[in-house]
């Protein structure tokens, strides 16, 4: 089976979804919208009612386009398996082609095991989020606009993961950044939502600038931006010991690539929310819950991980150069420590959050830290394994949180119809202090949420246990410092998830809205059940060998049930055998055996932390919404943890990044735009030139040329001809008869002469 020719449909399907909802979606959802707009009806009347049938047309069309892309991704995966996993490149057209400069960048799709893995995750989880959003966004006046943005997000994410060069990847990279701005600020009538969208946009621009610098360096040195060309050339130059002349200095390949890979790390820190650029992700909760699930689970935040894993050859060259003492900056170690520190810091901050979605947001930052740390260690398959399982259980948790919020909001609306109920305009349906006891009212949501929480905490035998512990096993073997940080982060994860389960689903309801909450409709719960099943069985993708002997015996046999993901991804994460020994080799691609000590210790600590939160710290408290958090009253530890929640980098962002951004915006607005462009360029150059040309045209071309010359000249000519012809106008018939006779004779003579 060969379906590689269908690869463009991967992008075409979501593009069709964008066009449909952008052009005609509102006509389905709000049939009277344009009539009422013409009649100048108030906005409240325009947005009063959505047509349920129209919502289904809009939502299901977008969802079917996402499912169409998922079907194409499945076909591509089967085609790769039937093609001995050999990568294919589908060139659509030449994007840039300058023969004189020997510069060519095709718009081409890289179909290999790594890109197809990302395609399956993005489209599969993304499709479930689309379906869930049909129920969640019911009644929203901008229903069709929401699905336009969702499909557009999917479109750019698929460009990113299917690119065969860094420039095309960057188009998708910037596209998902734009879509995140649109989706986070979807309800832009709220100032806080608009600020959150702006914050995400500004912080990501820092990382994007670093990626641009890295691409410029790569192009200057290698003359191309294609993945394969850069990787092969870099490996060959490193093997030969060839130096590189750049900006008048000769440097080694290792030194140059250490700079490039650090720049890629900064870019990944922006997109994948690592220290110090993680501050935008918690605020991204301002968007609708399906947006949170899409951004946090399967799309934007994984793009930084994908960039590092895709550039694995560059990082491994730097690692090899570091062993030879050739580089001053060991970028893979920097990657590993940044990831581990982020995992721990974000987990600590999650202890102090009361917003149900913000707890999950900080947990996302923490789990991304695990992936980045794994990539820094060289355990690229482990990083991808955790990326996949995290997509399952984190999408499950966010959508389940949306179900909880949906149920509590309906409970609060029920109270609003009760005349005796207090009027609470400031009620927060996302605050866990307003919940409690929801396992009775929302049984399906409770069970799927519990599965997701246990998977996130790394409890055996759920998916998170296998992927997280594989990372811990590699860290224990190759970098004990990273291992300690990640182990502490894993313990923290179990604690704050135990805290969340207790506060949301157990105890007595702490607010009347929680008492009147009800289960979400099947359109929302069915995707949750599917994701819960994936969170249970997702570990089967890459189960480790039980013993080192079994791993050694089954080496180079990836078709077996164990370590299938290694066997799958090794075709994209291949070693570059430049010599017989292979100078650039990915050492951690070897199958991993199960480290019982590491696995047992992490599982034991996770169960202890979960139980400590559930039974001890939050056993019977808080009983009311007004009661302070019990964790804060723990001597020493509680205040220290709470200090971490208010200290770190968000404060620095507000004190330094925001003022800098505002000053830069002010300088651009007043100096560049107004003083330079408006006053100088516009007033002194454009306006003066235009006015001068207008005056010349008016006085010379128009008045003297057209009026004085052409128009008046034509009048004088007509007047002269008229005066000459007037002589022939005598008024005597004989003269006219004579003229007629002379004319007839002249014509006869002409014809006779012509005939002769």
- The whole-number mean of residue pLDDT values reads 81
Percent strand equals under 5%
Could you give the order of strands across the largest sheet? 1-2
Helix/sheet category: mainly alpha
Radius of gyration: 34 Å
pLDDT < 50 stretches: 556-561, 576-583
Task: Explain what the structure shows.
- By secondary structure, the chain is mainly alpha-helical.
- The chain has helices at 9-29, 33-38, 43-46, 52-82, 113-136, 143-162, 166-184, 191-222, 227-240, 253-271, 280-283, 289-298, 303-310, 312-323, 331-350, 356-377, 380-416, 438-441, 443-457, 463-478, 480-505, 512-515, 522-537, 548-553, 564-569, 596-617, 637-646, 649-726, 733-755; strands spanning 88-98, 103-111, 243-246, 249-252.
- The strands form two sheets. It has a two-stranded antiparallel sheet.
- The radius of gyration is 34 Å and the shape is globular.
- Mean pLDDT is 81; it is low at 556-561 and 576-583.
